[in-house]
Structures are given as C-alpha cells and as structure tokens.
C-alpha cells in the first residue's frame, strides 16, 4: 500500500506483518544508538488538526530514528487559522515535496480525502470517530507480547464506543486476528448497528467483563458530544468506570489497557490505571515501535526506494 488510512484496508496477514516488524523495532528503541537510515533523505510532515501527545510525539521520534527529516506543522499558528481549507493546506505542503504526511483531523474521512489530493504517502493518525490504525496495531502488539497470541482471547472494549476511532480500529483488527470482541457501555454511547462489526454488546460492566482476558477502557470524549452528556459523569464512573471490584469479574490474569489520554476517576480508577494489571505505559512504548514499522513499510513503496 502507498498509504495507511485504516485497518479496514489491511488483510490479516498484513496486520501480522506490521506487528512482527514492530516487534523487531522494540529492541532498536531500547539500544543506546537508536538511529537507522531507511528514511535518510526523506521528509516527513506531521499535520495534526487535533490535539495529541502520544501519537504526534511517537511519529516524530519514529521518523527521526529511521533517519527522516521530520517537520511538525503547527496548525494553531498556521494559515488554517486564517480560513485556509484542509485541501489547500495539504496541496501547499505537497508542493514542498514531502515523502510522508502523517495527518490527524476531527472529521471522519478527511484523511482519505487528503490522500487523493497529494502525491506523497499519507498515514492516518486519527480521523474523527472513524479510524486510528496505528493505535490498533500498537494495542495488538501489546496484547500479543503478554498473552502470546490474540486468537481465542476475549477482549472487552468499554465506555464511549460511539465517539471512538480507537474502538472501531481495534474491533476490526482484533476480529481479523481471531479474538472475540465485546463492547460494553451505556446505550447512549453505543453506536447503532455496532453488532455488524462482529461484537457482542453489553450495557452491564460486570456481565460484560465476565471471563475477559483484556479490558480496554476508552476515554469519555466530551469534545465530540454536542449537548449534555447522559448519564452524568458521577453516574458514569459508578456504572462504567473501571475499579478493582469490577475488574474482579474479568479473569484473574486479565490485563487493563487505555489508549490515553485518561480521565482519571471518570472511566478508570487511578488505582487500576497504576496497578499491576495495567499495560498503559507499555502501550506508549509499543506506539513508537509500531510507528517505526509503519514508516519503514511505507518507505519500501516510496519512489526510488
Ligand atoms: N492514544 C492517542 O491517540 O493519544 P494522543 O491523542 O495523545 O495522540
């Protein structure tokens, strides 16, 4: 593929190949000398229309470790603020001959649209509530390293499923890799027709968590909610927030994940987030390895590679 726009475009063996490649990058990232040359002479632009800590910094670190010149476009101080459109912004940057454009945008489909307008490779770093493919890859890598395999595991994805690109990409990836996927959350935050993606739907946390191997919490995305949020934050934590008692309904060796950023005390109790079953910090480490693997794979398809 020239681009990475979504997990939905990947065959199961392509997902596995990216995870395998990322596995090899973990050691590189732990060495004192981390620099590689596969992207030497290449230019990577990170274009983030939405806030990010993990994704943007790990794409920057990954690009630099592979030898690319990485430029972080500051949207907040760009001509986007003067009304320049997404497409005009992209074609302007494209005229500077980047090789890879990493894009995050608040509108679902915006990154696909942009990919049709530029000549370089495009990576989706999150588009609205649609896809966040590198998050699903890093989550699959994290799970596989702890459980040995993904096939046959029961994974519960919990909370604000309706607004979550992380949930969508993970559902597609985990199903492709042979997991049984459940979604758990209030019916007000459950998208209509979610069953069609191949998940079992629960509204009760304790029933949904029963016998799960992996408990993946989602951030409550209040910036994507137009009006008042139903239920209230207090009710949400009471019924759907992950605390030790609810986690006790999953398997004793269940592991807890969260893509970040976390709302502590809203969707997850700090005691669980920082507890022995939590993989949250490791997910961040795997994020760099996965982004190195994605950039390295795209590099093979760049002109004159
Ligand atoms: N998980 C994730 O995408 O985090 P950021 O929004 O900080 O990039």
Keywords, please?
11 helices; 5-stranded parallel sheet; 305 residues; alpha/beta; binds phosphoric acid mono(formamide)ester
How would you characterize the overall build of this protein?
- The protein is of the alpha/beta class.
- It contains 11 helices and 9 strands.
- The strands form 2 sheets. Strands 7-6-5-8-9 form a 5-stranded parallel β-sheet. Strands 2-1-3-4 form a 4-stranded parallel β-sheet.
- Strand 5, helix 6 (165-176) and strand 6 (180-184) form a beta-alpha-beta unit.
- Helix 5 packs across helix 11.
- The longest helix is centred in the C-terminal third of the chain and has 20 residues, at 280-299.
- It is globular.
- The site of phosphoric acid mono(formamide)ester (CP) has 9 residues, from helix 2.
Name the helicity range.
25-40%
- Overall 3D form: globular
Alpha carbon gyration radius: 19 Å
Distance between the termini: 14 Å
Question: Low-confidence parts lasting 5 or more residues at pLDDT below 50?
Answer: none
Class derived from helix and strand content:
alpha/beta
Order of secondary-structure elements? HEHEHEHEHEHEEHEHHEHH
GO cellular component, one term: cytosol
Enzyme class: transferase
InterPro entries: Asp/Orn_carbamoyltranf_P-bd, Asp/Orn_carbamoylTrfase, Asp/Orn_carbamoylTrfase_sf, Asp_carbamoyltransf, Asp_carbamoyltransf_Asp/Orn-bd
Keywords: Pyrimidine biosynthesis, Transferase
């Amino acid at each position: 593929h020239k681009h990475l726009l979504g997990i939905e475009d990947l065959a199961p063996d392509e997902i596995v190949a990216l995870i395998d490649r990322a596995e090899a990058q973990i050691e590189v990232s732990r060495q004192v000398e981390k620099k590689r040359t596969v992207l030497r002479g290449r230019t990577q632009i990170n274009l983030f229309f939405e806030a990010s800590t993990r994704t943007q910094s790990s794409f920057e670190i990954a690009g630099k470790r592979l030898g690319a010149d990485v430029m972080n476009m500051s949207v907040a101080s760009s001509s986007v603020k003067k009304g320049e459109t997404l497409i005009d912004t992209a074609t302007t940057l494209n005229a500077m001959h980047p090789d890879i454009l990493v894009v995050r945008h608040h509108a679902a489909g915006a990154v696909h649209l942009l990919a049709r307008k530029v000549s370089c490779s495009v990576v989706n770093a999150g588009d609205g509530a649609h896809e966040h493919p590198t998050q699903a890859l890093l989550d699959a890598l994290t799970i596989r390293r702890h459980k040995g395999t993904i096939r046959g595991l029961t994974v519960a994805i919990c909370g604000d499923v309706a607004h979550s690109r992380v949930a969508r990409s993970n559902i597609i990836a985990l199903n492709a890799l042979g997991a049984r996927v459940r979604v758990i959350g209030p019916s007000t935050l459950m998208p209509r027709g979610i069953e069609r993606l191949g998940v079992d739907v629960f509204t009760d946390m304790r029933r949904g968590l029963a016998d799960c191997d992996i408990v993946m919490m989602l951030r409550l995305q209040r910036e994507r909610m137009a009006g008042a949020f139903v239920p209230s934050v207090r009710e949400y934590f009471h019924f759907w927030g992950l605390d030790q008692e609810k986690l006790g309904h999953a398997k004793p060796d269940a592991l807890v994940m969260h893509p970040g950023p976390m709302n502590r005390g809203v969707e997850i109790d700090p005691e669980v987030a920082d507890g022995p079953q939590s993989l949250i910090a490791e997910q961040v480490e795997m994020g760099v390895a996965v982004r190195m693997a994605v950039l390295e794979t795209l590099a093979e398809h760049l002109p004159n590679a």
